[in-house]
Amino acid sequence: MSLLQVSGVRKLQQGALILKDTSLTQKKFQKVAIAGETGSGKSTLMKIIGGLVQADGGEVLFENVRVKGPEEVLLPGHPGIAYLSQHFELRNHYRVEELLAYSNKLSEEDADKIYEVCRITQLMKRKNDQLSGGEKQRIALAKLLITSPRLLLLDEPFSNLDMIHKDILKSVIYDLGEKLEITCMLISHDAQDILSWADEVLIMQDGEIIQRGSPQQVYNEPVNEYTAALFGRYNLINNAFIRPERFKIVEKGELKGKVDKVLYFGSYYELDIMLSDKMITIRTQDNHVKKGDTVNLNLRN
Q: Could you report the per-residue pLDDT of 56-103, keeping only the tens digit for each?
């Protein structure tokens, strides 16, 4: 049985549909990620799921009970669903331990486990004006988790984070399911952030879900160029989307071309190669290839 069921949800904004009969399901402990460009409807859908925005049609069922919108309740939101906005706020001039104590519904032992998972134990005595943006975000996350939600909605959690804090937050989000057994849904405009985490990926474009599947399916078998581009570089050959890493340089190959550009990315090189009729991009660890070289290529299985 599904923990969450969204059926035919619609949303109008200034007379235009920004969500078009959107439906999805999520099982308990299933990790669902929604990807799409800015303005595709991701955040609106997530806020409707959390009871923070009123839908203009359809319904959301959480644990088989309809989620009411803000026009139907005194306080917007659902007690079993926590929503972390990319624009979260923490009260000023308080120590971290004080901010968390106001929200805590758990025993000291259970709360300490959440603080450990969120990597904030060492921050408890600091005031929030002494924290980095990434540290504040993890505290805002812990503040939601100590209210014991059964579903956690994460809206663009990696935006505006440097690489160090992004990597820490990715580890935290992974541990939410593994150590705390909390069901999560995550949205991101950068699809690369979700491939290693999600069980199922939904792709949104213009208010519609246009593809859903495993990370491997949506990456290797995109339904169109929009979806392909969300996950990085691709080549379109004979109406098939082929990722740069699928090519390998060989002595005798099916394709032959001249290297036009060589870019170094640390663990691999990216080469632009001019074939007889088009330019393609490949990735290789071969550091002997130079601009102007002629190379033969095959596709990996």
A: 999 999 999 999 999 999 999 999 999 999 888 888 888 999 989 888
- CA–CA separation, 204 vs 279, rounded Å? 29
Q: Token pair for residue 247?
A: 């090519």
pTM score, whole prediction: 0.92
Say if strands 208-213 and 235-237 run parallel, antiparallel, or are unpaired: unpaired
Token code pair at residue 111: 């709360």
For domain 2-226, give the CATH number: 3.40.50.300
Domain with CATH 3.40.50.300 in the chain: 2-226
Query: What's the rounded Cα separation, in Å, for the pair 81 and 185?
Result: 11
pLDDT for residue 206 is more than 90 = yes
Question: Quick one: CATH architecture of 241-299?
Answer: Beta Barrel (2.40)
DSSP conformation letters of the chain: -EEEEEEEEEEEETTEEEEEEEEEEEETT--EEEE--TTSSHHHHHHHHTTSS--SEEEEEETTEEPPPTTTSSS-S-TTEEEE-TT----TT-BHHHHHHHH--S-HHHHHHHHHHTT-GGGTTSBGGGS-HHHHHHHHHHHHHTT--SEEEEESTTTT--HHHHHHHHHHHHHHHHHS--EEEEEES-GGGTTTT-SEEEEEETTEEEEEE-HHHHHHS-SSHHHHHHTS--EEETTEEE-GGGEEEESS-SEEEEEEEEEE-SS-EEEEEE-SS-EEEEEE--TT--TT-EEEEEE--
